Amino acid sequence: MTKADKDYYAILGVDEKADDAAIKKAYRGLAKQYHPDANPGNPRAAERFKEVGEANGVLSDPQKRKKYDQMRKLGAFGFGGPRAGSRPETTAQPGFSFEDLGGLGGFSEIFSSIFDRGRKGQPSRPSGPLRGDHVELPVEVPFMTAAKGGKVSVSVSINEECATCLGSGGAPGTTWKNCAECKGSGSVSFGQGGFAVNRPCPACMGRSERPAKECGACGGSGKVHQKRKIQVSVPVGVQSGAKVRLTGQGERGRKGGAPGDLIITFKVEPHRFFEREGADIHVTVPVNLAQATLGSRIRVGTIWGKRVVLRVPAGTQPGTRFRIAGQGISRDGKTGDQYVEIKVEIPESLTEEQEARIREFATAAEMKW
Ligand SMILES: [Zn+2]
Ligand SMILES: [Zn+2]
Fold first, then answer.
1. What are 14-47's pLDDT values in tens digits?
2. How far apart are CA 272 and CA 287, in angstroms?
3. CB within 5 A of ion ligand 1: which residues?
């Protein structure tokens, strides 16, 4: 196992800019998760536990981390899988000396990897752990669930490493040869003029090599599609566009790398009756001409299932709003209200008798005026 190839940030599942507190937190969580006591007889967990400790050992030490970061900048690692191909390849940088890396045990191997690359003029095949990709997923939430909080069940399609070929894409026992498409470099460049972008080679998927016989289980992609059902907690009062990040629920990492995250964007479905504005609820209730003119009592439902009796006074104008206190959404220790807007419905057709009465009303009104 070459330490030089490990992406310690990916192992801890933290960003390159993560501060000490974030690293500490990530380490604690993972160490607990993979602790041998919690995973008796599980060699994979034991291996992960070791890696997590190793990553923390470097990243929690400012000196070691600095040196490690310098190594990363040099492009000595095949980090990020396909993404690595989009970075300009770096060989050596001025101002960087061997002494800079003293005391960082196990890192001497990095040099051979840099020099190998320099000699062959091609990046080495990524062999270290690669963190899985993040997966973005929009999730529709029923209006009431968003208002009151709850859970929604989502089905997410995730690429998992193929168990048959362990992600290599080759049939077990097959021989490998350099990819003809990218001449074994793992990347191809697109673009024209002075501007070219390196992309992972589509033929070998950035692996530099192709198997003589592809894995039958995954068709040579090294990945299999898996549907995963996940229960997502919906925070009380969540609004459309709000996101939650489920750490480690994204694509599986490769070669022991940490999994990516699942990033969920909520979209609140509309309700046929209720509307929301922050913590307040709005409804529109129709009343007829007589109710608005003479006054009446109407029943109004709330999101909490209550039926509130509202007194509509005589002479209520269209668009008048009434407030039902405390029947909105509870957020941050405060509860919103429900607003009821009165819509006066004008009859579209009248019976003969009704029409006669309205005409009487009109005559009476004119006389008064
Ligand atoms: Zn496979
Ligand atoms: Zn290729």
1. 888 888 888 888 888 888 877 777 777 777 777 8
2. 18
3. 162, 164-165, 215, 217-218
